[in-house]
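Entry 14. Two folds queued back to back today. First construct below, sequence then C-alpha cells.
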Amino acid sequence: NLCLKINLKLGGTNLHLGNQLSFIMEKPTIVFGADVTHPGIGESEKPSIAAVVASMDIKLSRYAANVRVQGSRVEIIGELKEMVKEHLVNFRAANRIPPHRILFYRDGVGEGQFAAVTKHEIGCIRAACRELDPNYNPTITFILVQKRHHTRFFPVSSTDADRSGNIPAGTVVDTGVTHPTQYDFWLCSHAGLQGTSRPTRYVVVHDDHKFKSDDLETLTNNLCYTFARCTRSVSVATPAYYAHLVAFRARFHFRPDARQQDPSSFCQVIKGLDQRMYFI
C-alpha cells in the first residue's frame, strides 16, 4: 500500500482499465470530481473548503487538484469557474487538445440544494469554457453523488449474497425505488467487508451526451475500479473520492499561527505540486 502511494506521488501509474472506459477513449474527455468540506460542530466560524480534481490523461490514472476557501457552510462552490478553467488549461497543455466532453461528479449536495447547485455550477463550467474560447462548447454531463442516506439493499437468498452476506459488488438498482421524474440510480460498486454495504446514489441532473442508462451505470461502476491506492473497487466514483481526499487534506493547510476563520491564513500547495497526486 505504501509503494502504491509513493509511485503515484512520483508521477507513476498503478493501474488502468483500457477498453472498459470506451466513452473516455472515443473522444478527448475530462472527468471532474468536486466536493466541499464544512467545519465540524462548534466550529461555525471556520470556513468551508471546496476541492475540484480533474483527469489529465486518457487512462484516468493521473489527476490534478485545486482548492479554494469560501464562506462557512456554503455548499455552492463560489470560484468554480476559475477552478474549472485551470483544469481545462492544464488538460490542453498535457494533451495538446482541449477536451470535447466533460463528465462532472459533484459530491456532498443535499436534495434541498439540487436546483441551486446545478444552475450555478453548470453555468460556471460553461463560463469557464467561453473564457478559453468564445466558440468552445464541449458537451457536459453533470451528476450529483449522495452517500449520506439510509437506503440499504439486501439479497433475497443466501445464494445471491457475497461471502459477507451483502449484495454483490456491481449491483445496480434503477427501478422501483428511484425518483419518479429525475434520472437517478443506486450503485453498490464495492464488496462489503463488514456490516451492511451502503449503496451510493447518483442523480443525473444534466446530460448533453444522452447516455443510455446501462452505459452510464457501467461507466460509473468501472470508474470505481480506477482508485489508484486500492486494488479493489471503492464505494464512490473515483473522481468524487479524490475530491473528498483533497478537501480533507486541505484542512491542514492553514497557517498554525493564524486564525482559521481568516481565509488569508490558508496556504496553497507549492506550484507544480497540484499536478501531482499529493493527496493520495
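Second construct, same run, same settings:
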Amino acid sequence: MTQVAARPPVVLGIDPGTLFLGYGALANHRAGPRLFAAGRLVAKAGDPIPRRLGALRAELDALLAELRPDVVVVEEAFCGRNPQSALRMGEGRGVALSCAAAFGAHIVQLSPASAKKSICGNGRASKAQVAAMVARLLGTPPLELPEDASDALALALAHVHESALAGRLGRAF
C-alpha cells in the first residue's frame, strides 16, 4: 500500500486594495515555512470601483481554489493621511474577508505594524526592510515581487511565527 504524504498547512497572506491585491502563500513545513506562491491580482484602473471589486473577487476565488489555504491572514485597515484610501482599503478587505469565509478558511486579521514588528522587530519598518527580512526568513535570495506581495508574505510569516510561539507556550492561537 502506498502512503500519500500529508500536505503541509498553507497560510495565505492578503494585502487588500481596490486596484491591486497582493498575496503571499507559505507552505508551513515542520522544518519551517517555505514560499508556496506570491504575486498580485490587478483590476482595471479605469473601471468603476464596483466592477474592480467584482474582478478582484473572481480572481481571488480562483486563487483560493488553486492554493487551498488552511489559513487566510488579511491586513487590518488603518487610516494614514488619506481617509479616502482607508475607505478603499476597507472595500478591498471586505472582498478578501468574504472570499476567505466563503472558501471556508480560518481567517486571521493582523495590523501592518504587528506584522512588521513580528518580522523585523520594528513596527515602523520600511517596505524595503520588510521585503529583505521576508526573503531572509524564507531562506531565498531577494524576491523580485511587488511591495504588496512581500507585505502579504510578511502577514503570513507573522501568523506562522505567532502560532508557533503560542504552541510553545501551550495556548491555542
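Quick look at the second one. The CA atoms of residues 14 and 89 lie 12 Å apart. The mean pLDDT is 90.
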